[in-house]
Amino acid sequence: MEVGGQGTGAGNDGPGRRTAHGGRETRDEDGGTGGLRIYLACTVRGDRGAVVALRDLVRDLEGCGHTILTKHLLDDNIETAESALSERQVFDRDIEWLEACDLLIADASGSSFGVGFEVGYVLGRSDRTNQRVLLLYRADRAAAISRLIVGLSHPRCEVIAYQDPAHLAQRVAQQVPPDRG
């Protein structure tokens, strides 16, 4: 199955072993190690103003050797594509991906209960899984972002307010090292 596709798997390369930076080692098609498996969360039905910056971020992260499990969420036709699945299928697939990821990058710039659920799900288990969260929001939307998000102080979560795509890429690069495998 293609990662980021419509199936229920998450690439199913197995859990892999933990690396020094807290992620799981993955295998690429040639049997070499890969980077982090990243679940990118963003609104599908709300304000999608952050999509352009997130597309640039995905391109940068993939260029550094990481796998984005949910990059299909950045497609312009995502609502139509997701409607081919039942709500239960989306839930089961997304939980599988959340459990398989090393890092959740969640953009809270657009109002989304789903993004909040995903962040809470990962952080609630992070003491056992060593998963981390980068919680992003566009700085120009700070007044519209929940104060619960902006004030979050969980030890496995970094909250990042970003100005533009370049600033976002710089801030994330400080938190997510390139794969050296």
Provide structural commentary.
- The structure is a single chain.
- The protein has 181 residues and is of the alpha/beta class.
- The protein has one domain: Rossmann fold (3-Layer(aba) Sandwich).
- Helix content is 35%, strand content 16%.
- It has helices spanning 51-63, 78-82, 87-100, 113-129, 147-150, 165-175; strands at residues 26-27, 33-34, 37-41, 67-68, 103-107, 132-138, 157-162.
- The strands form two sheets. A five-stranded parallel β-sheet has the order 4-3-5-6-7, sandwiched between helices. Strands 1-2 form a two-stranded antiparallel ribbon.
- β3, α1 (51-63) and β4 (67-68) form a beta-alpha-beta unit.
- α1 packs across α6 (165-175).
- The longest helix has 17 residues, at 113-129.
- Residues 1-32 have low confidence and may be disordered.
